[in-house]
Amino acid sequence: MDINVIITAAALGAASIAGSLLGLVVRRIPHKCNDIFLGYCAGMMLAASIVCLISPAVAMAGTSSWWQAIIGVAAGVALIGLLDIIVPHLHHLTGIDTEAHKGNASVNRILLFVAAIAIHKLPEGMASGVVFEGGNIADAYAVAASIALQNIPEGLVVVTPLLMIGISAWRAAAAALAVALIEVAGVIIGNALGSISGALMPMLLGLAGGAMLYVISDEMIPETHSHGYEKPATYALVAGVVTMLMIEHLFS
């Protein structure tokens, strides 16, 4: 396996664990700070999904096969949309979110929680792993950087609600570790899929980009706009987009 893939997998897992450890120490952070940082990360991921994933997918497919990239994006959105219906959200489990999801009663709360976060972690990890097979290391590291930054506040989200509903610190830490390992597995799976056939790369890159776009639009942006701090979160999102464009330019 490429050393770059190993470094990326380790870095994404470490960032997620770092956020969770911070959550165990801090226990609670102001909504304003969380919304601003999540908005910034959403902006970085938004730019990365388009510039580093979808745009290269279209260019790689060429004028005669551009539809492969479009099918990939649609498949990524459909996949995460389906998971979103099947798996309940952590916010719903803790009573914070009134959005209805099915399946809450039949599975242990902790397992449901890990599965819900996996909606984000698995495709995010796959997005990082797939890009390395596209031949552009700059794009790959740019995508990884945006996801690693987002993993820190998301690590907080892994731990804090569990502590709020009475889960012990040790069990919360175990759940956080499981979530981090899911993303590491996603990097490896994404890289393996990308190495199977170069002909699949436009579709796989598009799928990863579509999955990221869904997560940003359905999860991250609504979360940053639900506590009365829409303006600073929006400014942070714009700053994140600009930062990601600068990072991509510097790496290239």
Short account of what is shown:
This protein is an all-alpha fold. It contains 9 helices and no strands.
Low-confidence stretches: 90-108
Indicate the percent of residues in helices.
over 70%
Overall mean confidence score, pLDDT: 78
Most strands sheet: none
The coarse silhouette is: globular
The helix count comes to 9
Order of helix and strand elements from N to C terminus: HHHHHHHHH
Find the structural class using helix and strand composition. Answer: mainly alpha
Distance between the termini: 23 Å
Question: How large a portion of the residues is in β-strands, by DSSP E?
Answer: under 5%
Quaternary: single chain
Tell how many strands the DSSP assignment holds: 0
Whole-angstrom Rg: 17 Å
Explain how this protein is built.
By secondary structure, the protein is mainly α. It contains 9 helices and no strands. The protein has helices at about 5-25, 30-60, 65-85, 90-95, 110-130, 135-165, 170-195, 200-225, 230-250. Helix 3 crosses helix 8 (about 200-225) and helix 6 packs antiparallel against helix 7. The longest helix is centred in the N-terminal third of the chain and has 31 residues, at about 30-60. The two termini are about 25 Å apart. The model is unreliable at about 90-110 (pLDDT under 50).
